[in-house]
Give the backbone structure.
Amino acid sequence: MIETLQNLFSTITTDETRTIDIGSATFPAYVFSKGYEYGVMIPYNNSQEIDEKFSLIHLRTTNVKVGSDIFRVLMLACRNILYRNEFASVCSDFVELGFDNNKRLSLLSNPYDWFEKWKNLMGNRKSDLKVYDVLGELKVLLYLINEGKSPKWNSIISGTHDIDADNSSYEVKSTIIKTDRIISVSSPYQLIGDAEKELYLVFCFFEKTDLGESIDDLSARIISAGFPNDELEDYIESIGYRQGKRERYEKYTLREMDLYLVDENFPKLTFKDFVEGKLPKGVLYYKYSIDLSGVSHLKIY
């Protein structure tokens, strides 16, 4: 099924819909391309509205026209055609029927469970963030605001990159070890950008000092710069740093902040580096480390 979908993605034209041959008229599936999006969809006869995002993947309900018929579907879409082979692996799991159609029936009964499974497999959790990790993302938010951009801190709620701003996305890595320029990449999708946006990695080095800034200090500056108070507070509390928690008062001083463009010259490991553009059989996901020493960058602090 994966190869079938890869072939369909590579040959389908814009605003086209094709039926996927899965051997069932009762439980059909379709591949589509519309505008910047492409993906797969299945009929969905439930009135429940679904709209979930993770990295480059978007799961949602919508109404579509196939032939002369208009019907409601559950759609799995992606906006980066460069990764159609990798996306085909997820789509294969989405459209396959399983024994006695049980896989499809399970998906239709609870699409959220299916989506959460894939989020977990691909390392979407923003858990165990240290104070300096949060400060790094707050520093980048403030930097982008001061640059005249309109940043959105969306990693907590949608599983995309840490921050989106206009036509760029930002992944933030922070450390308190001065000699350590090694970062951990926790998901195959973490350093894959959207086709319409440039992707940057921001590397921050902090030292714990009494004269530094805390989460509350930086939050106040960001709110004063125009970022919505409720939105910022919701994000901070959602990662475990509720108001009044001791860690919100810990102070760190930013010593370095470097900006890296994640392009074809940036060291990274993606699905394209594997045979046939997919992980070996039985391998679900991978984690790896990158040494940023010697990688071209712009010093922004």
In short: The mean pLDDT is 87. The first helix runs from residue 2 to 11. Helices lie at 2-11, 84-95, 102-109, 111-121, 131-146, 155-158, 215-224, 229-238. The CA atoms of residues 218 and 224 lie 10 Å apart.
